[in-house]
# Entry
Amino acid sequence: MNIHVEIGDFRQAETDAVVIYVFEDSDIHNELLRTADAALGGRIQAVLDLGDFKAKLKNISVLYTNGAIASPRILLVGLGSFDELTVEKVRQAVGHTACHVRDMGLKTVAFHVPTEAQDEWIQAAAEASLLSLYQFKVHKTESGDDDEDKTLESLTFLVESGFGKSAVERAVARGQAIANGTTLARDLSNQPGNHLTPTRLAEKAQEVAEATGLTCDVFDKATLEEKGFRTLLAVAQGSVEEPRFVILDYTPEGEGQDTVVLVGKGITFDTGGISIKPSSKMGDMKHDMSGAAAVIGAMQAIGQLKPNVRVIGIIATTENMPSGTAIKPGDVVTSYGGKTIEILNTDAEGRLILADALGWTAQYNPNGVVDLATLTGAVITCLGHVAAGAMGTNSDLMEKVKAAAEKTHERVWEFPLWDDYDEGIKSKVADVQNIGDGTAGTIAGGAFLKKFAEGYPWVHLDIAGTAWGMKGSTYIPEGATGWGVRLLVQLVEDW
Ligand code: BES
Ligand code: MN
Ligand code: ZN
# Structure
């Protein structure tokens, strides 16, 4: 769905409903409310007097206009107190409203844009309306019950004349690009393992590159062998599916820009390998490429928004399967950069493929590297499905990531990577082993990756808790969340 921006009087809007956002405690909206109230012959005043609508966050009242204005309905939607409004509250209120009008069965809706709306609010409103309406239905051939089949067809952001339409259009376009990137990431992550193989994931990245004007290199198995991506190949050797390594490159015009590299874990299905997982919830492991999905989604948005920084998106992708050719506990492999790894648990495969990816990354002399990976179940024990675990080697980069996380409400929480944690990943036979000592599992993963993220500022985001299964937010669905796209785009845009 596209969002249209139009200038006009809400009384003339020919649409199934006009939505008016109302602050709880300020006079700011009196002008608009007075106009609407006058048009409706005092019905808004009546609703307020009866106490049926208090403009608390996400409060909704539906008024029927009986021909008094062009639209048959006015929806009053509460934003809470003006002084306490945050961008996240805008997302919550607008996301809730979009779902509400969709569930009412409405097809066309106009959101009146308050004159005091800041650009960030408008961008957030565009993002939240698109993200809240997200559904993954590609494998459904039968229509569900009535409610499931309702779709909103058109959404207009209605601007009062004299308000500056182009600024609103810019904010909406940004919101749309970012929401579309997030939607792409959700779609990729929700695809089951038989539909989204490593080969297919790489093709998807290529399609995005072609559509967005990025360059894209894909290394197939033979190329990976030639170049020495031995840990990626080691994880892949148990599967009949070939691995892929993808490099997406956005280079802005001009010279001398910084380079940021985004790295994503792309396990299209994680059985655990020979260290096989229990079958309950194993189906969720189709989402184990959510880091890669976030990188592809972010690169799509970055290609469209064209920030003034070079951004390289890197994806290492394979299945992790048990078989007669699979890696075994105790095997030793050599990573791209030459360090040897003793594989004590084949289910700690994400860090193995990232070891090669992080080694490869050094050649770009990046000013910052952020990897996203559904790396450890332990991060869910620590932070639940609320925030991603963050670890890194550079406080400047970490602060940038935290600032982007705060702005987008894709929140992160930092764990320490003190040298003390290196003890747990010491191997008797190789340079390092791939599991910790059983304590601080998320940090053990970070400590392992640190050994391969050498020569550049680096932050690792463990998104095992946030990539799917987040609850309680109007614009975040069940299943894949697309977590990280908004954070990464913000990081790059603020660089
Ligand atoms: N993909 C999993 C992590 C995961 C588990 C994500 C549950 C979301 C929910 C990862 O590859 C894995 O299996 N990690 C192991 C590491 C352990 C063997 C050191 C884990 O967390 O159990
Ligand atoms: Mn695993
Ligand atoms: Zn995994």
In short: Residues 270, 272, 320, 347, 349 surround manganese (II) ion (ligand 2) (CB under 6 Å). The longest strand covers residues 259-270.
